[in-house]
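SAMPLE LOG
Freezer: B-3
Tube label: C17
Construct: single chain, 269 aa
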Amino acid sequence: MVTRRLAFRAILCLGMVCVGARVQARTLDEILKAGEIRVGVNVLIPPRAQFDDKNVITGFDPDLASAIAARLGVKLTLVNVNGPERIPFVATDRIDVTMGGMTRSADRAKVIDFTVPITGNNYGVVTREDTHISTLAELNRETATIAMARGTAVLPTVQALLPKAKFILLDNIPDRDRTLAQGRADAIVDLIDNPAMVKTYPDLHWKIFATPEIPGSYDCLGVAKGNASLRDWLNIAIWELHTSGFIAADWTKWFGRPMPAPVPVSPFF
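STRUCTURE (predicted):
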């Protein structure tokens, strides 16, 4: 619990920099007048975003951001942000919208505002077959080591479920995956819909299983706290992109299969 409180306080302090500095997020009208929307994406979590061979950021998130900018009639500027930077960047007006697998949570909603969901998530355990781990409960022991990325929404939940385990917190997803692949951790407990380590380390024998103890979640767009004009417009744009089939089709384009946890789209938000 101490670790959870400290982790959230760090996020809260970073997000609240905007209050002390009196930074005001750009409203929808100001974005329209500027003719530009700044969207944060994380190139370390392909195929949501990555650099192609021409050093251009491509992926599911850039495609969605481009569709949003087109509906606004403004220029799109993509900003590369890593996991821990996503909330501080949008809270301090360095970007207008944050993406990069921005899973909504009650803690995060104290710092930023969320749109309606874009994608659904399933949680589970990723481990190597040589660990012989088959349930989440088996990781709740003092000899177990869990690798997690800092700023991950599910981290406080995992820590509460596995109070006896040791946690190694890494700065990004590739470092987290490398830690598990090298045998410095026994498992990762996080999203399992697109386990990148399977492709990155194909010679290892991986074991992936769902954790019913952890409910699914939704990824949304994040905007600065109180930026209702932008959030409300984005909600309508996202609804249109869902109902037109754009989001589902683009997910399949980049991930090679339909969305494992589709969002139940509603016109009420």
